[in-house]
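cache lookup: miss for this entity combination. No prior model stored, computing from scratch. Input as submitted by user K.M.:
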Amino acid sequence: MSRILRSLSVASVCLVFVAGLAFVIWEISAVATPVDLPARLAENLERSSVENPVTAVLLNFRSYDTLLEIGVLVIAGIAGISVARTSSLEDPELRTSDELLYALQRWLIPLMLLLAGYLLWAGSDRPGGAFQAGAVLAASGVLMRLGGIPMDFLRPGLMLRLGLSLGFAVFLLVAVASALHGGEFLAYPPEMAKTLIVVIETVLTLSIAMVLLALFVSAPVNNAEEPEEGGS
Amino acid sequence: MTPSLLYALAGAALCGIGLFGFILISHLLRKLLAFNLMGSGVFLVLVGLAQHRSGPDPVPQALVLTGIVVAIAATALAVVLIRRYYHLAGKTALDDAARETLRDQGSRQVREEPGE
């Protein structure tokens, strides 16, 4: 009885919350904006040297956000790896023995790698970019992991550290270099902007895929049944 | 009333559903899912409201894209932590400290009453 009462009271609180939120959204939608952001973006799009406005915002106008974001990703990846037990990396129990998966893998993984490359390149003038490409790359890595393809670079060591920190390091290097060169922090020199953006996008793709894959792999798997610590 | 505004309102509804689940469900994994639902609602409000005013707006879209990637990383980290917690404690829900102490006191009172 108290359970029903409790869920009813929580439901009413949530309803009030939604009603308030909807009212605020309705009010905001009626007010005109003082600044027309899309128009200003369209005016300045040529300066960013990429044609896709979302990529221009992500990697040129608001690249500070993206820099901090990849920093957050790297920290999450490091924290996930340090919590996990490294022994679960080569756990044979995780491998599925699904023959359909094995058969599909040969077709899917090259296609997915190709798609990731395309998405990365398409980001400069149409929807696409580092994050989408990184997600596809990480997904193909998850598929490879489920199929039991050995991926030694995910073991703690030089390759893992390099892969995790590459995107953040290159991004930070470009930012500091442009600041030292006389400009502002993260203001690319106009003649090199396109090259720099493509380079940053490429290393970002690698790092994002690496962080997501490392987080997937690092969940402790094998000893979930026994709550006692210190088995392996 | 444009379709974009409908998206924003649907985002508000998602926030409410997520909040309901987040408060009421004690299983940690489901709590995490409910929390992610709230996050999706916020993204929907951001994009829908901006699109309602001035057509597709790349600035909130880029913001939401950044938010999605951070949300994925945070969710993955939370899942790792939950699995670790389950491995160490053998439970899928956090202890409710307030209720535990209440129950302890209640049983002690019951036990002490007949002696007096």
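stored under new cache key. The CA atoms of residues 173 and 186 of chain A lie 10 Å apart.
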